[in-house]
Every structure is written in structure tokens, then in C-alpha cells.
Amino acid sequence: MNSDDRAPRILGVAFLLQAFTLLVSGLILEVALIVPDDISETMIRIANHAWLLRANVFGEMITAAGVIFLGAVLFLTLRRQSEIMALVGLGFYILEATLLAASRISALSLLRISQEYSTVGHPIGLQAIGNMTLASMNSGYQLLMLPFCLGAILFYYLFYKSAIIPRALSLWGLTAVSLALIATVSALAGHELSFAVYLPYLPFEFVVGVWILFMGRRPFVPGLHEDTGAEVPKLRGLRDTESKIIC
Predict the structure, then answer these.
(1) How confident is the model at residue 188 (pLDDT cuts 50, 70, 90)?
(2) Where are the domains of the chain?
(3) Half-sphere exposure of residue 31, counting CA atoms within 13 Å on the CB side?
(4) What is the pLDDT of residues 61-75, one digit of tens each?
(5) 3-state helix vs strand vs coil in the chain, percent to 5
(6) What confidence tens digit (pLDDT) does each residue in 81-102 have?
(7) What are the two backbone dihedrals, phi and then psi, of residue 231, each rounded to the nearest 5 degrees?
(8) What residues contact 155, with CB distance under 8 A and at least 6 apart?
(9) How far apart are CA 81 and CA 77, in angstroms?
(10) How far apart are CA 114 and CA 224, in angstroms?
(11) What is the mean pLDDT of residues 240-244?
(12) Strands (E), the chain
């Protein structure tokens, strides 16, 4: 396998790793442990399945590392379009990963509180503390969405300019993440929007990761520009990525 084959695989794997770890860790927390509007049952579940919450924390640490890895690969791939924009995008992704890692402190605190809650007979006072800790976790997720959305908008705009992926995919990403940004800013301002606003983005990273992984070799062969029909040169960004990370 030559470098032209390996380079798109790196970017595709980075997208899929990020999407998969986020999905798995989120399902562990939301489906297996969190009971909506019932902090008592939530704390009992957490106390009885402590290993699941620890698995969630471990998964989120992998997700945070994956965010930084994806941001670095995107920077190396897209910096030829605009190094400043790509660098700012990477900075936002690093901030997102930092906030994600920091939010896991609240998760570990909730585990200790939940274990104490189950041991001493479900006191009301610990319910209130557990509820505040869970709210802190949720607020942390909302906060980290802000740098993610800003960084993704920059990267997907550079994707659109580069034509490394079909522009229809770039526009999908830009539109979906812009909606997510509106919902995030609204939530931080105290006005929760429906989760449906985030739904258009949920499959995007899987789709673009699979496309790059299996179809991404096409940009390395000179062809016709999708809009103008003019011949475009080989895109060297992904080869740069390969040489920086693998070699």
C-alpha cells in the first residue's frame, strides 16, 4: 500500500474513531444509567453498576484523545487551504477535548455520591447533591459543544474549498453543525431547544469517515472539478497527513 492509499485511511479512521467512541460512551451513560427526572433511581443504578460509569469515563477519555487526533489530522490535511483557519479549528478541538476530560470529574463525583446514597439509606440531602452534580455534567456537555461547533464550521468550510470530499457532504456538515451551534448557544442562554436540532449531525461523522476511508483515494487521481469541469491537481493535504503521522 503506497502513501496515497494510507493517507485517506488516516483521516477516515480518525472520523470513525471519534464517532464510535462518542456514541458508545453516550449510550452507556444515557441508556444504562440515567433515568430521566428520577435522580434517586439514577443514583441507585450508578451505585449498583459502578463499572459502567467507570467504563463511560474511560470511553470519554478515549473520545477526548480522538478529538485531538482528528483535529490534528484535519489541520495537516486542510492547512493548504488556510493555515490560520485550520490552526484555529485545531485550537477549538483541543479546547473541546479539554472540557470533555474535565467534565468527567463530575461523573466520578456522582459515583461516590451515589455509592454513599445507597449505603446510608437514600437521604434526601444526597439526592439534592447528586442532582446538582448531574446538572453540572450536563452543563459541561453543553459548554464543550461550543468550541466543537466553531472548530467544525472552520474545518468543513475548508473541506468545501478543497473538494477533498464531495461538496454535498461539506454542505451537509456545515448546515448540521450550524444548527447544533444555534441550539448550543440557546441552551447556554437558558433556552433549551428540541434535541431534534442535533439529529442532522449525528450520522455525519460516520458517513464522511466511511466515504473518505473507501472512496478517498479518488482525489489523488487528476480528474474533473465537480462544478466547473476544469482539471484539478492532485490534492496533497492527505499525503502530508500521512507523512507527518506515519513516517
Answers:
(1) confident
(2) 3-242
(3) 6
(4) 889 999 999 999 999
(5) 80, 0, 20
(6) 999 999 999 999 999 999 998 8
(7) -70, 135
(8) 74, 78, 86, 89
(9) 9
(10) 60
(11) 49
(12) 223-224, 231-232
